Amino acid sequence: MNQALREVKPEQDMILIEHLPFQTDSGIASRARIGLIVLATDFTIEHEWRKIITPLAGVALYQSRILNDAQITPETLRAMEPRIASSADVILPGSDLDVVAYGCTSASMAIGEEKVFARIREVRPGAKGTTPITAAFAAFRAFGAKRIGVLTPYRADVNRIVASYIRARGFEVPVFGSFNEQDDSIVARITPESIRSGVRRLLDTAKVDCVFVSCTSVRLAEAARDIEAETGVPITSSNHAMAWHALRLAGVGDALPQWGRLFTRPLD
Fold this sequence. Notes:
Distance between the termini: 62 Å
Shape: globular
CATH architecture of the largest domain: 3-Layer(aba) Sandwich
Helix content: 25-40%
Order of helices and strands: HEHEHHEHHEHEHEHHEHEH
Largest sheet: 4 strands, parallel
Number of domains: 2
Number of strands: 8
Number of helices: 12
CATH topology of the largest domain: Rossmann fold
Strand order of the largest sheet: 2-1-3-4
CATH class of the largest domain: Alpha Beta
Structural class: alpha/beta
């Protein structure tokens, strides 16, 4: 920068008007402030959540990212636990949040939901917590579903964690499908038509009450209503269920049928 410019005082050749009067209102978050912790490798969740949440007047979404490994294994998933608190802490420091959502389905199961919530409460004791699998269980209850068809992109050892975790909570998993891809950057490019085909394969194989598509990198939200219309079976995904659950936990009960059956339901 030119030395002469640095030395010019603001008052020179300028009328300075300070302490102008102003009024305040409730801002963009008059109804709810929702915090979202996004995986560093995630391409999808912010896009889907903005589509769902941004049109809602008075509901604001604030995000941070958490360091993770692009290769999804039980070990890399569990390694995120010590980083959860710091990732929650940098979302509007010093301001209240109604909900903090941790955006990793498989890590929520590998770590355990209660441990995730404990890390969030360390820095956000007043916020309600959710994870994709917490939200999925709430969605199953809202649907009255017991028999769950599960579709994932994960490799076999992660799939075992997912199936065992869901069944241990009292739900049946009569059919489980997987693309067996462990790289998030590839998972984010799985086409919606591939998801549709995978869902149809599950429904052709076993009778289920609903379908859950696991993984925040998978794109499902914008196709949910059409898939339900085609199949007659309720469907949700990690991003889809958690956006609904976060809204309901924050007291936002708007019916949004354009996002499928779940978004017409209250919390059970």
